User: Which sequence fits this backbone?
């Protein structure tokens, strides 16, 4: 059977569309903008919780057939927005859109991070183990290891926390 150029183009388009739709979550997108540069003020406004937290454990789920992911267990050291529990869990997929609390190939146990967090949407199709976990607001944004947070950024987060009532619109208990 001879395949014409237009059929080949159509088949290629269908394959690419399938790849793009099944892995669209793997890219960094902020309000529909790919790899957007965000500000601390933007992410502070978008997040339910803003915390400084320490990694105390990690549960990795590696898979060759399914999606790989990690749930980090964190100790909240400081709260800048919201009222999270003292210990929280943060979920991330192991893909190009993930936000990892790692050092090399292992969890950065004892590492401290500034995290802009949201509850995982009930509409999201996350693994059942992640249903009560939080996730980073924007993996390519302002969340980062605490030692990389500049003095100016620390002052800005502190200032924003003083301007924002420290209440939760959704309980995280």
Assistant:
């Amino acid at each position: 059977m001879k395949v014409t150029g237009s059929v080949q183009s159509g088949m290629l388009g269908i394959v690419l569309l399938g790849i793009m739709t099944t892995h669209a979550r793997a890219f960094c997108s902020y309000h529909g903008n790919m790899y957007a540069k965000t500000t601390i003020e933007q992410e502070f406004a978008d997040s339910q919780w803003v915390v400084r937290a320490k990694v105390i454990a990690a549960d990795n789920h590696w898979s060759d057939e399914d999606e790989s992911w990690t749930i980090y267990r964190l100790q909240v050291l400081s709260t800048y927005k919201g009222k999270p529990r003292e210990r929280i869990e943060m979920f991330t997929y192991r893909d190009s859109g993930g936000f990892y609390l790692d050092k090399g190939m292992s969890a950065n146990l004892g590492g401290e991070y500034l995290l802009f967090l949201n509850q995982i949407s009930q509409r999201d199709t996350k693994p059942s183990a992640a249903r009560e976990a939080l996730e980073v607001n924007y993996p390519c944004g302002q969340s980062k290891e605490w030692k990389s947070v500049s003095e100016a950024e620390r002052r800005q987060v502190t200032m924003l926390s003083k301007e924002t009532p420290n209440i939760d619109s959704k309980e995280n208990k």
Remarks:
- The mean pLDDT is 83.
- The radius of gyration is 19 Å.
- The longest strand covers residues 49-61.
- Residues 19 and 40 are 33 Å apart (CA to CA).
